[in-house]
Design goal:
Elements lengths: L12 H17 L12 H8 L3 H13 L3 E4 L3 E4 L4 H12 L2 H22 L2 H20 L2 H18 L3 H22 L12 H8 L3 H10 L8
Antiparallel strand pairs: 1-2
């Protein structure tokens, strides 16, 4: 996708920096520069956006400060978060105690389950069944990373079924930062004692029972090692 900026002669420097920041954000949001990937070099960005080197440098520095980009000496600049909220949450979660992270998850997921039981559509239920099946298959396959990804995907699907856009958007930022904490809770391998059945949670949402859904969502987040 091609984007154009005002020329340096037609806009103040500060405005140009803001424009470049928005362009960088847009490329990241569109997936042109994926999470974990390296963005183009400074000369390439200068050519792409048609602005000066200092303007590009200030824009990149602003997103580094926001936690979206990370400069690695001798390697380049990488995308480490999809937005400022994810970056801020990621830094906060990294510094938080495990018990605090679990409490935040509980605050999000219990309310989402309650709302999902009240608002789920037939399409939501089909998506939940698919997500649950993928999670169970990932557990049987035994790969920790795949299971954690499938577990987060199921909870994100429940968030979507709650039909609260703000709650869902906030959870996406929190969930992406929590992957490492969930993986750490699982340990280096999937063992029977760490298995948590989520079928009862999905059944409660299907039954339209908000009280039971909230109870099921909270049950596996009582202890720090809940998945």
């Amino acid at each position: 996708m091609t984007r154009t900026l005002n020329s340096p002669s037609s806009a103040p420097r500060r405005t140009l920096v803001r424009q470049v920041i928005e362009q960088l954000r847009g490329r990241i949001a569109d997936g042109d520069w994926p999470l974990g990937g390296k963005i183009p070099t400074e000369p390439q960005l200068v050519e792409t956006f048609g602005v000066g080197r200092n303007t590009v440098r200030e824009a990149v520095r602003a997103l580094v400060h926001a936690g979206v980009l990370e400069c690695r000496q001798g390697s380049g600049t990488y995308v480490v978060s999809t937005d400022e909220l994810s970056g801020a949450v990621g830094r906060r979660v990294a510094d938080a105690k495990t018990a605090e992270v679990v409490e935040v998850r509980r605050a999000f997921e219990v309310e989402a389950a309650r709302l999902a039981a009240l608002r789920r559509t037939p399409e939501d239920l089909a998506a939940l069944d698919r997500a649950l099946a993928i999670r169970e298959a990932a557990w049987r396959a035994g790969g920790v990373a795949d299971f954690v990804s499938a577990d987060v995907a199921l909870h994100t699907t429940i968030m979507a079924a709650a039909h609260n856009a703000m709650l869902a958007e906030l959870y996406v930022s929190v969930a992406s930062a929590m992957w490492d904490t969930v993986a750490a809770a699982m340990g280096g391998e999937l063992t029977p004692d760490r298995y948590v059945d989520h079928s009862r949670l999905v059944d409660a949402i299907r039954a339209g029972d908000p009280v039971r859904a909230a109870r099921e969502a909270g049950a596996f987040l009582e202890a720090p090692d809940g998945a």
